[in-house]
Amino acid sequence: METIEWHELLGNVFLTCPSKAMITDDGDTVVKKCGIKGDSKFKESHEVRVIHYGRDYVVAWLAKRFFSNFKGIKWNELQPILSEAYKKARKEDK
Questions:
Q1: CB within 10 Å: which end of the chain, N or C, has fewer?
Q2: Average pLDDT for residues 88-92, to the nearest whole number?
Q3: What is the DSSP letter of 66?
């Protein structure tokens, strides 16, 4: 089976939610039927492939899907909110 990087996917590359495994040295892989850039856009050309997601995906996802919603807010204003949300998520894990 062919292994590709997330940025080679055809269409919206940010549909996969980041995971803890993606920020490890090896990253994370997902096996699914997908098209890649350069393929025909028709579903018949889509094949089952192994998609590799790494730390670069998490950074790009955060920049595109999260931080782009907070343009104009200074980092020192956003940081306490992120810290509070992180603490709340950790508390809910217990």
A1: C
A2: 87
A3: I
